[in-house]
Specification:
Blueprint lengths: L4 E6 L3 H11 L5 E7 L3 H11 L6 E2 L2 H4 L7 E4 L6 H11 L2 E4 L7 H13 L4 E3 L7 H11 L6 E9 L2 H9 L12 H4 L2 H11 L3 E9 L29 H11 L9 H4 L7 H10 L16 E8 L4 E7 L6 E8 L2 E6 L4 E6 L5 E4 H4 L2 H4 L6 H14 L9 H20 L3 E2 L5
Parallel strand pairs: 1-2, 1-4, 2-3, 4-5, 5-6, 7-10
Antiparallel strand pairs: 7-11, 8-9, 8-15, 9-10, 11-12, 12-13, 13-14
Helix pairs in contact: 4-5, 5-16, 9-16, 10-12
The chain binds nicotinamide-adenine-dinucleotide (NAD).
Length: about 425
């Protein structure tokens, strides 16, 4: 009989609960035995839905972290909480699923690596795209030398205009002094994948970028500070009416779906509840009158030790979300666009071979997010602990490396200088 892993969740918001839902649906592998969240409504909801005993519900992280309560701990709190919690959890002996970004503070990243050396349990940082079939396919193509030797990558992170407004203007990640710089928050997946694809460490980075648009000087004439009261409510693409009502209808009136359930946590969602939520909360604020300070567009130029060059563009000014990239090799190109659903391999002088990404994904898993990556990653941690045949492709060290790249990009953006990722080089 398979091992059933006892699981505790620390921070059961959008991400923590997402992993929890998958675990609850797979009782042959997981049993959720304890939850800690400062929000009592969340504790109440998931203790009922998942049958967690009231004695094992906590609102105080210190109380919760006094003893080991399970085999696996999911850390789904916000960016600045992760390292403090993860260090304690390692000392208690947990295997850990740790949300990204690990931390925006270099000293904390290095302190976590030190603790991990002393307590070398399994830590999987949620770089979920490494597990998503489309991104796995690209790695396979590169490893098989389908395009010869890789020389250059052009990579674009399309944030999408509504996501920029939701997360990086009105929402949780609008201020880097409270969470992390946007290049780390949005692109630590990309930076992690890029170092994985290049197959070597990044040597130096140069970056430009700014907050160019979501500020008061661009507020249209006569606009109100809240979308509900605004004369542009039905015409502005960044209006909350579009973001949370029209888009919600476009999605088929889902009862409980991100980002609508972030604007209004009172599920099942209705049009009335969503409109009342944005009328009174931060998600209805005019995008030109928020207290945001993170960028809305940024470019990062990277040189890797093996000579491969990469240009990463992150922009909020896109109609659709997703990543697209071109990999240039000595014998061909790989073109990739996850929104347009294709990977195309062009060997020079030959007919292109095209893969539809949606056909690579197991439809049972696709619904859970990141093209199936979320649940494949969770199950890979399980396999790493119990079956020793895991598909975990990353280490805590490699995850920290991508965070250092992000910090250097931010330093370069602010200073205008080329920044070396490792001092000694
Ligand atoms: N892997 C990914 O692709 C991905 C995607 C989005 C977000 N994230 C990251 O996941 C993390 C969580 O994001 P989210 O969208 O779920 O946020 P969220 O706000 O929905 O969830 C955070 C939860 O932590 C709880 N919390 C806060 N402080 C706490 C404390 N001291 N003790 C216990 N609980 C506490 C909050 O009440 C909330 O329920 C963030 O670090 C974010 O950057 C990762």
């Amino acid at each position: 009989m398979a091992n059933v892993a006892k699981v505790a969740i620390l921070g059961c918001g959008a991400r923590g609960a997402g992993y929890g839902k998958h675990m609850f649906s797979n009782p042959d592998k997981y049993k959720i035995v304890s939850i800690c969240d400062i929000n009592t409504k969340i504790l109440d909801r998931y203790s009922k839905e998942w049958g967690v005993d009231s004695a094992n519900l906590f609102t105080d992280e210190n109380e919760f972290l006094k003893e080991k309560r399970a085999d696996i701990l999911v850390i789904g709190t916000q960016d600045r909480d992760h390292v403090r919690m993860c260090i304690k959890a390692l000392e208690l002996g947990y295997h850990i699923l740790l949300e990204k970004p690990i931390s925006p503070i270099k000293e904390e990243l290095l302190a976590l690596l030190e603790t991990h050396k002393k307590h070398p349990q399994n830590v999987v940082v949620c770089h979920v795209l490494r597990y998503a079939p489309a991104f796995v396919k690209i790695k396979e193509l590169l490893s098989s030398k389908a395009i010869g030797e890789l020389r250059l990558i052009e990579w674009t992170e399309q944030v999408a205009f509504w996501h920029q407004a939701h997360s990086f203007v009105r929402g949780n990640w609008r201020r880097d002094d409270q969470t992390s710089p946007m290049i780390m928050q949005k692109c630590c997946h990309d930076l992690d994948l890029l170092q994985y694809y290049v197959g070597d460490k990044c040597e130096s980075v140069y970056s430009t970028g700014d907050l160019s648009f979501f500020k008061e000087e661009f507020q249209p004439e006569g606009a109100a500070d809240n979308c509900y009261d605004c004369k542009y409510r039905n015409t502005c693409p960044y209006s909350a009416e579009y973001g949370y009502i029209e888009r919600w209808h476009e999605k088929g009136d889902p009862k409980d779906l991100w980002p609508f359930n972030v604007c209004c946590s009172d599920v099942p969602l209705t049009e009335e509840k969503l409109r009342e939520a944005y009328r009174t909360n931060q998600y209805g604020k005019c995008v030109f009158k928020c207290d945001n300070c993170v960028v809305d567009n940024q470019m990062v130029n990277m040189k890797f030790k093996n000579g491969v060059k990469v240009n990463l563009t992150m922009t909020g000014f896109t109609a659709v979300p997703g990543r697209k990239a071109t990999f240039y090799g000595t014998l061909g190109e790989i073109r990739f666009d996850d929104f347009a659903d294709f990977i195309e391999v062009v060997e020079f002088g030959k007919t292109p071979v095209r893969y539809n990404i949606s056909e690579l994904v197991d439809t049972d898993k696709a619904g859970y997010g990141h093209g199936g990556g979320d649940v494949i990653m969770v199950d890979s941690l399980y396999d790493m602990i119990y079956n020793k045949d895991s598909k975990v492709t990353t280490s805590l060290e490699a995850s920290v490396e991508s965070h250092l790249m992000a910090l250097c990009a931010e330093e370069s953006r602010k200073s205008g200088n080329v920044v070396k990722v490792h001092e000694e080089e």
